[in-house]
Amino acid sequence: MRTLTRAQIVVGVDGSPSSVSALQCAQKLAPALGATIRVVIAWDYPPKFPGYVPLDTSEFAEVAKEHLSNALYAAFRGDVPDDLQSSVVYAHPVQALIDASRDAALLIVGRHGRGSLHHLFLVSVSTACISEARCPVLVVREAPGSI
């Protein structure tokens, strides 16, 4: 017997204004799709120290949790949807979102994240998700006048 589950919208968050807009977009789309919202924030070791593995990773995870908390507050002003799920994942952001997209009806990401010159040298998270995600991807710009 097959059980029916609600569709899931996965939202990639990094604390940037465009990821806050992605959360707000998910909130608007979820009722129309009959979907729940799953928020994913990922952290990885800083790339400037290849091969270096710090003994205490709690600081990285705590910063990610803080970005998640701030983004949820900025998007929902304290009125977070009851069925919203969130997770902090230790992985490269692209891989974390691709993995999460396997069970999603839709993946929503912001156009530009927190990386300052990242988009000049590397493929952006949004571009990589468009290419690799296992579900449709919606890329959201920062809302005018937001944050």
TrEMBL record:
It comes from the Bacteria. Residues 8-141 form the UspA domain. InterPro entries: Rossmann-like_a/b/a_fold, Universal_stress_UspA, UspA. PANTHER family: STRESS RESPONSE PROTEIN NHAX (PTHR46268), UNIVERSAL STRESS PROTEIN UP12 (PTHR46268:SF6). Belongs to the universal stress protein A family. This is Universal stress protein. It comes from Arthrobacter bussei.
